[in-house]
Amino acid sequence: MIRLPILTYLRIEKYGLFPGATAGKGIEWSFTKGLCLIAGINGLGKTTLITMLLRTFTGPFDLTAEGLPEKLESIVPERPVVLKPRNIRFFAQRVADQAANGAVTLRARFGGDELEISRRLSDLRLLSFAVNAKSIDLGANREDREAAFQQQMCYFFDVSSFVDVLLVLHHVMFFKEDRPGALWDENAQRHVLRALFLEKDLASQVAAAERRVQSADSQARNISASAYTIEQKLQQARASQASASEQSLQLAAEQTLLDAELKESEHLENLISQFDERRKDARREYERAKLFREEAESAVESLKFAALVRLFPTMEDAVRLVVLKALATGECLVCGADTHDRLKEVEAQLAKGICPVCGAEPEQQHHVIPGFRVEEKRVKRARDTAQLAVKEEEASRITYEETKSQYESVLDRLTTVKASIQERTLRTRQLSAELPFEAGDILHLQKSLELTRRSQRQAESNRASAAKELGALLERGRGVIEKQAKKLAATFKWNVKEMIAEDADLVRITGQARLTQGKETFAVPAFRSEMTAADRPGKSLRNSPDDVSQSQRELIDLAFRLALIEIATGGAACTLTMETPEASLDELAMHRVGLALHRFASAGDNRLIVTSNLTNAGMITAMFGGLAKKAADVSLRQQHIINLLDVAAPNQAVLRSRAQYQRILMSALTGKR
Amino acid sequence: MSVVKELDPGAKEALSRSGRDIMRQRSRVIQLLDAAERVGISPLRAGRLHAFAYLADVLSPVWHLPAFDGKILKIEGGPHYPDLQREIDRLVVLGILKVAEITYISRPDEGARIDGLYSLNLHSPKLSPILAALGALSSEQALDPRDWEVQAFFVDLAGALATVPDDELGMSATMDATYADERFDHSNVIDFGSWSTNVHSDNLSLRTVDRFQKFLPQGAMLSGGEKLYLYASFLGRRIRAR
Amino acid sequence: MPGEFSDVIPGVSESEVAGAVQSLTKIPVTALEDHERFMVAVRSLVESRAQSGWQHEGAEDVGVFLLARYPREVGERYGATAVSDLIATNDPILGKMFFLNRDASSGRGMVLPTTPNEIVEWVIDQKLDDLPMVVVHRNKKLLISRTRGAGGDTRNDLIRDKAPVASVDEIYEALKVSHRALLLTPSICPAGVWESGRSAQYVPGPFPEKAIQRELATVLTSWFHGIVKAEMEDSISIGRIDIRLLRPDTEGKFAYWVVLELKVIKSSHNAKKKVKPKAVKPAENAAVVAEGIRQAAAFGKDRGAEPFLEIYDLRKDKTDDILAHIVVVNELNKCALKPKCRVWPLFGSASDARIAGWP
C-alpha cells in the first residue's frame, strides 16, 4: 500500500516571481487540511507554484528529459532521466536574477514522519533534507545526494523505484493543466496500477520483467533482421552458384586443359631446341655432302675433260660440257634423262675415236688425236668416289629433310599449343571473373547464418522466458488489482456521479499490453469508463478520450484519480493538486465538480491544492463548500488562499485592476455575487 | 611430262618442289649475269659469280629484300653454291648462257671444281623474253613486279663490286663481315637469314652497313645504292689492308 | 636494333667503317637518272685526268663515251675490248670510244672508229644514237654532252684544270654557270619550269621549284663530285625545296655545310593552255621569299649549316626588287643567322633575256 504525502508547509524565498505581500518576504504557507486555493490571474505564476511543489519531490529528474510525456511508453525507464537544462532552469528563466538565491522548502507528512525538502530554484539542487526536523546528510556529491534522496522518496512513498514515485506524482498527486489522464493512457494506467496496487517487490519485478521482455524482443528482432539479411545473401549466392556450378565445372575443365597444355609447351620447348640442333647438324652435313658430291663428280669430269680437250681440241666448251656431264654423271644435262647406257656407248665410241656428237669415224674427222685412252683406274676410282658422294648426299638430304620436317612439325605443334594457351588463359580469366561467389564465401555465409539463427533462437528464447516470467508476475499482479477493482469501481462511481450528468461506471477489462513490436500482448487488468450517451440506449465503453467530450474526459479522469487515491492509500489522507479545474467546464458542471472536490478536501486530512483563474467564482465557492454563511467562514476561507494578487510580482493587469480582481476573489469566497 | 603424270602424289610433290627450286636457281643465275652485263663486268669467272651471288644474298636486307638462301657453308676459297653451279651448267647447255675457258681447279681430297667465264648468251632468242619476265627490262613486263626491284638491287651491287679490282672480286666475299666472322670456322653453316630469328643480329654485313649512318649528321640519309657502294669500298679497303 | 650504334660488330673496326664512309663523295650519285649519273661520272673521270695533266695520254684530243645498257654486247660488235675501273687505272681515254655502264667505270673500249668530226654521224649511222653520249675535247677544255643521244640537244661543260674547292664562292660560281647555261631561257631550261607553250606569257609550270631543284642538284653534284655530297629534299609535302651539301669534317664524319633553299617568284600561277592564269600579287611573292628565309635560317641553325636562299624570278616584270619588300626585310632582320639571298632572273623568251642584257 503506497503512501502519499500530505503537504504541510511551503516556503519560497528570494524568488522574484513571488516577492511576497511584503517585498522580500517571499511566500511562506502552511498547508492545512482541506482546500488550498492558489488564486491569481494569468501570468502571476500559478503553474510555476504548482511546478515548484512537483519539482521539490522530483528534483532535476523525470520520466523523460522533457518531463512528463503526452503518452507514456509501454515500458518505463529503469532509472529516472535527468531533465534537459532548459527544464532544470524552468524557474530561473522566469526571473531576472536567474533565481540565483531563490529556494523552495516543502514539508510533507508521510504517515507519522514529516519530511522537509529544500531545493535551489536556479538548478533544483537539493539544499537540505530533513526527516522529522532532523537533517539527513545525503552526501556531498550532487549525484550521490540525489540518489540518496530518491531512495528516501522510495521509502516514504513505499514504492520500489523512484520511477514509480514519479508515476505516482504525475498521475495521482499532481493533476496538471495539460492532463495526461491515467484512465485514457493505457500504458500510464498499467504503470500506475502496478505502482499503486502491487506490493513493492512485485511492482519492481513486473517493471523489470517488462523491460526484459522488451529488451529481449528488441534483441530478437535485431538478430532476426540480421539473419534475414544473411539469408537473403545466401539465397542470392546459392542462386548464382547454381548457374555458376556449371561455370565452375567449365573453369575446372579449362584449367585442367590449360595445365596440360602448359606442360606440353614446356616439353615442346625442350624438344624444339634439341630438334633445332639436329636439323642444323643435318643441314651442315647436307651442304658438305653437296659440295663433296660436286667436287667428286667434277673430279670425274676433269679427267674426261682432259681427254676431250686432247681428243677434240676445237670442240666448243658448251658441247664439251654436255658431253662431260653425260660422261661423268650419267645424266643428260639437256633433258635430265639417265645416260648410263649411252655413257657406255659414248665411251666405246671414244675408244674407237668416233665423235660422240655426230658419230663421225676417225677418218672423217679433223683435228683428232688418235689413240684416246682414258686412264681407267683413275676414272674408276673417281667415279666410285663420286657414286659414294652421291649416296652420301642423298642420305644426308633425307636426314636433313627428316630433321627439318621434325623440327617444323614440333614448331607447328608448339605454335598451336601456345596459341591455345593464350586463348585458354583468356577464357579461364573470364570464367573466373564471372563466378560471383567462391564456395568459401557461401560456406562463410552459411556459418554466419547459423550463428545468427542460433543467437536469434537464444534471443527468442530469452524473450519467451522473459514473457513467461512477466506473464507469471502479471498473473500475480492481476489478482491483486482485480481484488481492488470493485472498490475502485464503486469509488469511481460515487465520485463521477457528482461530476458529470451521465451515468458512468468504471469497468474492468482485460487489457492487452503491447510490450513488443510483435503481435504478442500481455493480459493486464485495465479500466475503462462506461457511459450513457444521448443518442444511444444503455452504456457504452469509452476506450479513448475522443469517445467523450473534453470536460467529461477530465472529470472522469479526476474521478478515477480520486478512486485510485482512496483505494491505493486505503483511504489515508493525501494531497491532490489540480490546475484550474474549471478551464473546460460549463457553469453547472463546475459547481458539481467544485462540490466533489470540496468533499475530497474535507475528507480526513486531505489537502486539495487548486489553482484558479478567478474565471468562475461559482467553482471556488463550491470548492469551499458553497455560500459562506458567516463572516467567520469567509475569514476561514481566506486562510486557505494563497493570493497571488498579493504575493506574486504584479503584472500590468494586476497593477491596473487589482481591486477588481480582489473583489472577484472575495465574491468567489463568499459565494455572493 | 607424261612420266611425271604417272608418279605418285608424293613424288609429284617432291618433283614439283625441286622443280620450283630449280627455277628459282636458274632465275637467280640469269638475273645475276644480266646485272653483270649491265655493269660491264661480264663474262664472270665462276668463283666471282658465286661471290656475287653470296654478296647479293647477304646484302639483300639492305634493300629490305628477302634473302635467297640466307645461309652459306663457310669453306676455303670463298662461298660456293653447288646447286647454283649445276643450274649454271644446265643453262649453258640450254643455250641461255655462254661459257668459255672451262677449266677444272683442284680441290681437297682429289676433288675438282669447274671454272669458266660465264655470261648471258645475248644472241639467244630465248633470252629476251626470260629477261623481260624476270624484270630485267621493265617493271611492267616482269611476272613478279618485285623482281624489278630485285634486278635494280643486283645492278647497283654489281656496279658497286665493279669498283673492286676484277681479280679481287672473288676475295671480296671472303672479306665480307659475315663470312669473315671468326666465330664460325670452316665447314660450318653461317645462317644470316634462313633459320635466323634475329637477322639484324646475325647478319654482320647488314650491321656494318647500318653503322655507316653513325658518320653522317642527323637527318642525312643514305640511299640503298649509296650503302652498297660504301660497302664495296669497305670490302676494297679490307682487301688492300690484308 | 637497327641503327643501334653502341653494339660492337665482331671483326669489324670503327676505323674500317669510317674509312669506307669517306668515299661517300666519290661514289656514283645514285639519286640521279642513269644518263645524268653517267654525265657526272664521265666528267669526274675526265677532270681527274685533266687535273693530273693528262698523264698517260697521247696526242689525241677527243674521247667518246657512250652509255650502253649492255656494254659488252655493243662493244663486241666492233671488237672492243674489256675495260674496267677507268677512274683507278691510267689507261688512256682520249682517241678512244667507250661503251660503258652508267658509272662510267667498266665496259668495252676501242680506238675511235672515225675522225672526231664524224663521230656523231658514225654513232647515228650505227644506230647507236639513242645512247647518251659525252665527247671530250681536250684542247677546247670542253665536255659536250648529249643526254638524249647523239641526235639530241647538247650541253657544254668546261673541263676544269683545277679541282674545285668546297667554298661558298665556288657554289656561287656553280650557280652562275648553271643559271646561264641551264636555266636562263626556255630553250635551255628543264621541262617543268614553264608551262608547255606558255613561257612567253610567263606562265610557270606546276612545280617549277622542283624542276630547278633537280637541275641544280645535278649541277652541284657534278661540280663538287669527289669533294662534297649533295642531297635534296624529295618531298613536296614538307614544303621545303632545298639542296643540302655535306662535307667531311676534321673528325672523319660528315657535317652539313650549306643549305640552299629554293624559291620561285612569279607573275601568275600555273594554268593549262587556254585557261587564264590567276595573277600572283607582289605580297604573295614577298611572303614566299619570307618563308624561304625562315626555312633556310631554321635549317641552318638546326644543322649548323650556312643558309642560302636562291630566288628564281619567273616574273614578267622584274623591276620590283623583291628583297626590298618590307616583309622580306623584316624577316631577314629577325634572323640571327641571315641567309644569303640571291635573285636569278629567268626569261620566258630568248629575246626578253637579250633585252634584259643577257648575251
Please explain how this structure is put together:
The complex is a heterotrimer of chains A (673), B (242) and C (359). Chain A is an alpha/beta fold and 673 residues long. Chain A has 16 helices and 16 strands. Chain A has a six-stranded antiparallel beta sheet, with helices on one face. In chain A, strands 10-14-15-3-16 form a five-stranded parallel beta sheet. A three-stranded antiparallel beta sheet of chain A has the order 11-12-13. In chain A, a hairpin with a 2-residue loop joins strand 8 and strand 9. The model of chain A has no long low-confidence stretch (mean pLDDT 84). Chain B has 242 residues and is an alpha+beta fold. Chain B has ten helices and five strands, in the order H-H-E-H-E-H-E-E-H-H-H-E-H-H-H. In chain B, strand 3 and strand 4 form a beta hairpin. Chain B is globular, with a radius of gyration of 18 Å. Chain C folds into two domains: 137 residues, YojJ-like (1 (3-Layer(aba) Sandwich); 188 residues, no CATH class. Chain C has nine helices and twelve strands. The N terminus of chain C is likely disordered. Chains in contact: A-B, B-C.
Topology:
The complex is a heterotrimer of chains A (673), B (242) and C (359).
Chain A: E1 6-13, E2 27-30, E3 34-39, H1 46-58, E4 61-62, E5 81-82, H2 85-88, E6 103-110, E7 113-120, E8 126-131, E9 134-135, H3 142-157, H4 162-173, E10 174-175, H5 186-197, H6 200-311, H7 317-329, H8 340-352, H9 376-434, H10 439-499, E11 504-513, E12 522-533, E13 536-542, H11 550-569, E14 575-579, H12 587-602, E15 607-612, H13 617-623, H14 631-638, E16 641-643, H15 644-647, H16 652-670
Parallel strand pairs in A: 3-15, 3-16, 10-14, 14-15
Antiparallel strand pairs in A: 1-2, 1-6, 4-5, 6-7, 7-8, 8-9, 11-12, 12-13
Helix pairs in contact in A: 4-5, 5-6, 6-7, 6-9, 6-10, 7-8, 10-11, 12-13, 13-16
Chain B: H1 2-5, H2 9-39, E1 44-45, H3 46-59, E2 71-74, H4 82-93, E3 97-107, E4 111-120, H5 127-133, H6 146-161, H7 169-175, E5 188-191, H8 199-202, H9 204-211, H10 224-241
Helix pairs in contact in B: 2-4, 2-6, 3-7, 6-10, 7-10, 9-10
Chain C: H1 14-21, H2 34-51, E1 62-67, H3 71-77, E2 81-83, E3 96-100, E4 107-111, H4 119-125, E5 133-137, E6 142-146, E7 155-158, H5 168-183, H6 208-223, E8 229-232, E9 242-248, E10 254-266, H7 282-303, E11 306-314, H8 326-334, E12 340-345, H9 350-355
Parallel strand pairs in C: 1-3, 10-11, 11-12
Antiparallel strand pairs in C: 1-5, 2-4, 3-4, 5-6, 6-7, 8-9, 9-10
Helix pairs in contact in C: 2-6, 5-6, 7-8
